[in-house]
Amino acid sequence: MGLLEGKTAVVTGAASPRGLGKATAKLFAEQGATVAILDLDAEAAKAAAAEIGPGHLGLACNVIDKVACETAVAEVESAWGRIDILVNNAGITQPLKIMEIEPENYEAVLDVNLRGTLYMAQAVIPGMRAHKAGAIVNLSSVSAQRGGGIFGGPHYSAAKAGILGLTKAMARELAPDGIRVNAICPGFIATDITAGKLTSEMKDQIVAGIPMGRAGEASDVAGCALFLASILSSYCTGTEVDVNGGSLIH
Ligand code: NAD
Q1: Which atom of ligand 1 is nearest to the CA of 186?
Q2: How far, CA to CA in Å, does 65 sit from each of 48, 87, 102, 224?
Q3: What is the pLDDT, as a whole number, of residue 221?
Q4: 156 catalytic per annotation
């Protein structure tokens, strides 16, 4: 019997083939959950859902669009009756220095990471409240805790630090409704989020600062998401869990 048997989950930004969301959706499915994969492109989302097995859903949803979030959630709720788990994984990053951040960079990075997390949470909360149960897992980053210095610029650190504040405030407000809200702070994980802008020199420098001596795998983060989404973490809310190979020990 899987840890998420009979549960339904929504994972945003989960169409990226080597991404954290896809690995999380796959592990959740292996543990018995029915999963809706939301991403910008409908075809990619459907293909990713089909890949993790039969019965899962793939939907287009741009998380910066409040109506799109509400529409996708309504579609999942009408298909399955309820949403037990939300993983706010959709995110983008940019390797900029402070003086290079233009208004459009600020908007893009803050919007997808922080505004998207708020809008998706707002979309699922009424249903979770009605059932008096739910688990929300937000993807922050070690960049929020140690002031960047990995790949993303200061605007990325700010967005991910904003997610920590939002996570903790939601945890406090939603605990009486039986909804737990937690954050994951991954360190350096080998995915495609760096969009070809990570040089091998940058990578060597990052890995040199990781006590475990390797980049993380998407499955390392998925395992933490499973813990936070499942009954194993039933008394955890408002936490930030480090998945960073020891690169920030505090
Ligand atoms: P990824 O680039 O592989 O996947 C991100 C996905 O989000 C893509 O499928 C993309 O299409 C989707 N997306 C982008 N904008 C969207 C939008 N507006 N609406 C819906 N979907 C959108 O990235 P990843 O490395 O798997 O990262 C997943 C999450 O983990 C992100 O929030 C990221 O900031 C965070 N994170 C990653 C790392 C890392 O080292 N990879 C470290 C810390 C935190």
Answers
A1: 43
A2: 22, 17, 21, 28
A3: 98
A4: yes
